Amino acid sequence: MEERKYSKSVIVLFLLLVFGFTAVTFVWPERSFSENENRVLASAPEFTWKKLFEGKFMSEYETYITDQFFLRDEWIQLKTMTELALNKQDINGVYIGKDGYLIERHEDSEIDMEMLQKSMDYLVQFIERYTKRLGADHVKVMLVPTASEVLLEKLPPFAEGFDQNGMIDSIYGRLPEGTAIDVRDVLKEHAEEYIYYKTDHHWTTLGAFYAYQAYAEAMGFEVPALEDVTFEEVSDEFLGTVFSKLNLELSKDSMHTITLPNTPTDIKMTVDMAETFDSLYNDEYLSQKDKYSYYLDGNHALAEISSNSDGKGTLLIIKDSYSHCFAPMTLGEYEKVYLVDFRYFNMPLSQFIAQYRVTDILVLYNAVTFATDTHTGAFLR
């Protein structure tokens, strides 16, 4: 009898918790944006009978409840602390690495292999076309592995995931000779240095610098030595996107700018053909959660950079956000640098290249972003 009473009490308590917190969620003020996760949160779905019968309403409703759940960030933190106490080293898609590193896990299930094959074909066709027009010396591809492929000594022994190296090998093996810039060995040589953030999915300015050395060598530019460049710390309070998956502070990151010997002093940056800055950096973001947007003012369809550089020609970088701390290093070699993000860019790429008299092209993505990008058809527009 006592056991039955205990079981009933547990069930009642469980139901009260579930339905109680759900009820509170409905009266709790709805949030439109999560600064911690740096993303728009789902709003209440509109009910229609059609959506109900198709199963879309319940799917949207589940997403809404998950996003708007009462004290969502605090529950994520509690879940993380509980799993850490159980000595778990893989929590919510994040490996708990050595030396305070939180390293994002990437699974095969995240990759639409059919779409990836199309993306690879689009890229190869694009590079072949512009190699014929501009020459292999002026067209380059740099696919950058994420931390899980480079910081192997920081990972738990069981760590595995999407084969970025296999994908990069497959793409590079199809590109015209001289167009691939392989930075994997370079990054692995410096794996014990601060080349990836501990709480974010991006590489650091130092990691980007080592890749720029490879780019400069491939382009025939003077390769800057580490001792000849200046790094300036702009923040030591950065908690990035990987931190947001756990909402538990194990470490903080520092962010830096870099000055090369040929870095120009007078710089203008225009984003989306609208707003112009006298700098490549927006200090306002340093007081916000999304500190990485300090570089190049974050994500835009198009950024145009001009300066008092002695460089010649026009560089087009087709990119993801790994380019944001890389692009400033290229300014000394070009009259103008353009950055295009296919997620927001609508102008036909061929028209842009012709209209703006592009002389050099660099395709720069981290490998996982390229593998999951659904906008790569823009290569052929």
Task: Describe this protein's structure.
The protein has about 375 residues and is α+β, with helices and mostly antiparallel strands. The protein has two domains: about 1-100, no CATH class; about 110-380, no CATH class. The protein contains twelve helices and 14 strands. The protein has helices at about 1-25, 50-55, 55-70, 70-85, 115-135, 145-150, 165-170, 185-190, 205-220, 240-245, 350-355, 365-370, and strands at about 35, 40, 90, 95, 100-105, 140-145, 230-240, 255-260, 265-270, 275, 300-305, 315-320, 335-340, 360-365. A seven-stranded mixed sheet has the order 6-14-12-13-11-9-10. The longest helix has 26 residues, at about 1-25. It is globular, with a radius of gyration of 24 Å. The N and C termini lie far apart (about 75 Å). About 30% of the residues are buried. The mean pLDDT is about 85.
